[in-house]
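Hi R.,

Here's the chain you asked about this morning:
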Amino acid sequence: MDISHLTLGGEQTPLVINSILASGVMGFSMAAMMLGHWYLTQPTLSIDELKRITLMMIFFLVLRFFFSTYQCTHVLVGMTESEIYRYLLKMPGIFVLMRYVWGILGALILSFFVWRTVKIRSTQSATGILYVVVVACLVGEILSLYLAFFFGIPL
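And the predicted structure, written out as tokens:
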């Protein structure tokens, strides 16, 4: 399959910011999940490192939330309420909605559950929730790449 025709559309600066935030979100969520597994085998380890990585993951998810909210408003500016509803129920709006709700809001809400379980030193529960966070982030970033390549929407 030849994919050489694919190029990133739109302005380049939001696409660069999108890539940096995607790297931070995916990197810290996967690092937290792998570190959570390490705590399961070595329960005497200090919990401080998992707290730090979880906070960094939350920080990047919050940045991602604000960046994506700005990009969503940029995409929807000038539309009436009925036009927004129509847009969100057709292509590419349905993917924008899925990306925003599942890949950003879902991961952000779950990350606060991770933070609460890490604070009470329940590393097994935190690791289980981190699995879901990683899946949410992965699905969200795949949708983000799809929107950037095919529609020029850096979300």
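The helical segments are 12-41, 48-76, 81-88, 93-119, 123-151.

Let me know if you need anything else.
M.
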